Amino acid sequence: MPGKNQVRARFFLNRLKWVGLLWLLLLIFTPATFAQEPITIKILVPAFDTKEWAIFAQQFAAKNPDLRLEPVAGPMATNLVEDLYTSSFLLGDSPYDLVYMDIVWVPKFAAAGWLMDLSDKLPPQEQKAFLSGDLDGGRYKGKLYRVPFRSDAGLLYYREDLLKQAGLKPPETFTEMVQISQTLQKQGKVKWGYLWQGKQYEGLAAMFTEILEGYGGFWIDPKTNQVGLDRPEAIEAVTFLQNTIKQKISPPGVTTYQEEESRRLFQNGEAVFLRNWPYVWAEANKPDVPMRGKIGLKPMVHAVGQQSGASQGGLGIGISATTRHPQEAWRAVQFLTSVESQRQYVLHTGVIPSRRALFTDPQLVKRYPHFPSLLPVVDRAVLRPPIPQYAQASDILQRYLSAAITNQLSPKAAMEQAARETRSLLGKKSES
Ligand code: GLC
Questions:
Q1: Does a structural domain hold residue 21?
Q2: Domain shared by 195 and 223, yes or no
Q3: What pTM, to 2 d.p., does this model score?
Q4: How far is the centre of ligand 1, averaged over its atoms, from the C-alpha of 24 (Å)?
Q5: Which of 119, 271, 276, 340 is the most buried (most CB within 10 A)?
Q6: Are 195 and 266 in contact (CB under 8 A)?
Q7: Which protein residue's CA is at the shortest distance from atom 2 of ligand 1?
Q8: Domain check: are 142 and 58 in the same one?
Q9: Does the structure show a pLDDT above 80 at 263?
Q10: 209 C-alpha to center of ligand 1: Å?
Q11: Are residue 319 and residue 361 in the same domain, yes or no?
């Protein structure tokens, strides 16, 4: 008979064998388990978009069990999101595999070597499906760095009901817009005439591009680096904006508005006209909005003898040059820029697609009857200068525009200084 101690020892030896076996099994299977862990593809997105991105993440995971899309919420304003991407690239080893890019960042990011060249990934046949302005905005020195995801172009919204009641046609020129505003303001029909984005941020530069175009001016010619900010047309454009405030057509607070502040005032019935992006139509026609069904939209007004200009905006997707998962990141780009993803995003948000065919897509037109009429507007949209120094050029313009519309400088003085600084930024000392 074995003694008590012997029994215990055998019992422990047996247990040890089992524990050893378990360890062995774990060692054999653990690497396989790790290999099946999905690869994460990270992207930084503006905060207002997080709901839509959560849906994309779910759908992407369902279609790609080996991958995971992780949207990280950033700030609201596009230039602040740009700052975050920029610092992550400057620090090296950016955590983001994808870059959700405003059209104006492309030359800077591409010139810095932060983006993967996607030219060979999107064959010319597939490129044709996108709006040409959007696609052009994704190119730098002939190479493609960004696939368009959603487009944008500035529009003029107006109170269709008020204009009809007064027997007035929607304005074509700046002067007509001012006159209609004053008429309806005098009649006490509405408090303000015209709302726009006057805060010192990227939206101010985007909005100004349209006024400038409407006066026949230009900011920077990307081919020659000529600067047009101190030309008479540009000074007239700034004077127009300054006057809207002086003449009480626009509220004094307009110098602090971004897109959302101006939209809220407009859809509460405070003004006849609003300059904004296409997303406003869906927002202003939501069931609880006082102005639902009373709003029309059209291309921006212009000076007599000039043409209307819409600022070309929009976001697209690029791939970080440093991603460890370029193939997987490309699968995510394909998914996000596909017809289905765009249709869904547009249906939910009211922004415009970057795929041409979607402007006449029956499902989208049913929901947004004005979409086909926007095609000619986006086709004529004007790019902000596609140069690597864009962020600094925009910063200069924003500062001097802001000084002029808040009456710290005359339009002429402001634009002369803006032009001088822009020229020295571009390495040109004197005249345009
Ligand atoms: C919109 C446009 C973008 C622009 C921004 C300015 O998001 O799509 O291109 O830079 O507005 O606020």
A1: no
A2: yes
A3: 0.90
A4: 57
A5: 271
A6: yes
A7: 313
A8: yes
A9: yes
A10: 12
A11: yes
